[in-house]
Every structure is written in structure tokens, then in C-alpha cells.
Amino acid sequence: MNEELLKAEIHEVREHRTWFLVMGILLIIFGTIAVGYAFGMTIISMIFLGWLLIISGVFEVIHGIVRRQWKGFFINLIGGVLYSVAGLVILANPGIAAITLTLLIAMILIAAGAFRLFVAFTTAMEHRWWLVFNGAISILLGLLIWRSWPVSGLWVIGLFIGIDIIIDGWTEVMLAMAARSAPA
Prior knowledge:
By secondary structure, the protein is mainly alpha-helical. It has seven helices and no strands. It has one domain.
């Protein structure tokens, strides 16, 4: 990274560190609320996803119709219709969509964890135990979600979103604190 650009970034954070701190504190509060109401956050996120798919689908259909001379007309048209239908299905059944998506998340965590363990034990590398730890945690989380599925489908997504918001908030707070003590 260019040293001048880095200095400009540090200056920008220093200049607005109060904003970073306030933003971080608000994110921590909102993330904590999201964790406390994980079911509601899960349903809200499914509704948001449903609308996002519908709007994307409509734009893709419009794009296909406007560019109908293009060879990709049918791909845009079919893709847009499928996005819109998927969005409508999610909006009609946000709880079932969350349960289904949560099972997929569990399977991905288990598969990713197994892959990390495989790589850690078959490849010579420094700090392999961090990869082993990461893989083991991924498998454990995936198994915990899967064992309590389908009930976990009603709260896992909201919990994950809440935790992510909290961590983002702490990142902002720590950035503000670091900017305060950074050299000018």
C-alpha cells in the first residue's frame, strides 16, 4: 500500500474517531438486540432476502426485454423469473426458508471444517494448529446447528447476523481507540 495513502487513511480515522466510536457503540447495541431477538432477526432477514430477490428478478426481466435482440435474452428472462419466484416463495414462507437455509449453513460449516482439517493434516505449513482449530470449530458449529435442526433454523441466522454486527461494532470502537494513540 502506498505510504501517502496509508497516512491519509490514518488521518481520516483520527479526524473522525468520535464518529467511529459512536458508530461502533451503536452497532454493538443493535447487534446485542439482534442476538436477543434472534428469531425476529431471522424472519426480518428472510423477508429482506425475499424482496431483494424479487426486485433483482424484476430488473433482470426488464433488462432482458430491453435487450431482447441479445443472445442472452432468455437467460435474463428465465433468471429474472426464477429470482422473482424464489423471492415470492421466501416471502410466503420466511420461517421455512430460514429452516432450509440453516440446514445448508450447517452442511457448509461441516464441509468447510472437514476440508480445513484435511488441508492442515496433509500439508506442511506453519501455524497448522490454527487451521486445525478453525476446522474443528466449524465442524462443531455445523453439528450443533444440525443436531437441533429444524428448530435451530428459526434463530441461527438472526444470531449469526447479530454476532457479526457486534464484532463489526467492536472493530469500529477499536479503530477509534487506535486512531487516538496513532502518531500524527
